[in-house]
Each structure stands twice: as structure tokens, then as C-alpha cells.
């Protein structure tokens, strides 16, 4: 393998991981790929074990990274919902691949 290619590839992977690090960012993004808009409470219910404080912190970070947008939806209650930006939607294939890999590894380890 070309050393220059390895360096660029490694840097790109590290950069992506620095953005997506932590216990909750990928699960939040995954939940938002499954439904166009989710309210805070819906997200919290779908992410077993996440506290309101942790969810709020991670949603703010994802907004700062331009992966998620927070919008106030006009209705009787003017409620807030979260949705992925186009940049956030670009992560779906990567998350799908990661899930397929995880399923394969889980099956391989179960068969041992």
C-alpha cells in the first residue's frame, strides 16, 4: 500500500471519528435517519438509557457540526423537532455498513 494513501486514509478516518466520537452521536443520527423529524421526547424514548442532559448536549454538538438542525414546527403547541441536514444524511450508508459488519461479527462470535 502506498504510504501517502495510508496517511490520507488514516487522517480521514481519525477526523470522522473525532466528529462522531462518544456513546450517543451515532445512535442519535441513526434514529434520525429512520424518521424525517423527531421531537426531543421521541428521541429520548428511542435511545434507551440516555438522560435528558446527555441528549441535549449531544444534539447541540450535532447542530454545531451541521449534522442536525433544530426547528420549531408550527402547530397549536409550536413544538421543536430535530432532523438531519444533507450532511447528516450522508452518514446513513456508513452507519448501515457498520451495522452489517456488527451483525456479521456477532454471528461469527456466537458460532464460536
Automatic annotation (TrEMBL):
Under the heading SUPFAM superfamilies, the entry gives:
Winged helix' DNA-binding domain
Q: Which UniProt keywords apply?
A: DNA-binding, Transcription, Transcription regulation
Name of the protein in question: HTH-type transcriptional activator hxlR
Q: Which residues form the HTH hxlR-type domain?
A: 11-110
- Pfam families (alphabetical): HxlR (PF01638)
- Quote the gene name from the UniProt entry: hxlR_1
Which species does this protein come from? Streptococcus hyointestinalis
Molecular function (GO) terms listed? DNA binding
Amino acid at each position: 500500500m502506498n504510504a501517502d494513501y495510508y496517511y490520507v486514509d488514516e487522517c480521514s478516518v481519525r477526523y470522522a471519528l473525532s466528529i462522531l466520537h462518544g456513546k450517543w452521536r451515532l445512535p442519535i443520527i441513526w434514529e434520525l435517519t429512520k424518521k424525517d423529524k423527531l421531537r426531543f421526547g421521541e428521541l429520548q424514548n428511542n435511545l434507551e438509557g440516555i438522560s435528558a442532559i446527555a441528549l441535549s448536549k449531544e444534539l447541540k454538538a450535532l447542530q454545531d457540526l451541521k449534522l442536525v438542525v433544530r426547528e420549531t414546527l408550527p402547530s397549536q403547541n409550536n413544538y421543536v423537532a430535530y432532523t438531519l441536514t444533507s450532511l447528516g444524511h450522508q452518514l446513513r450508508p456508513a452507519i448501515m455498513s457498520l451495522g452489517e459488519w456488527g451483525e456479521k461479527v456477532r454471528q461469527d462470535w456466537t458460532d464460536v
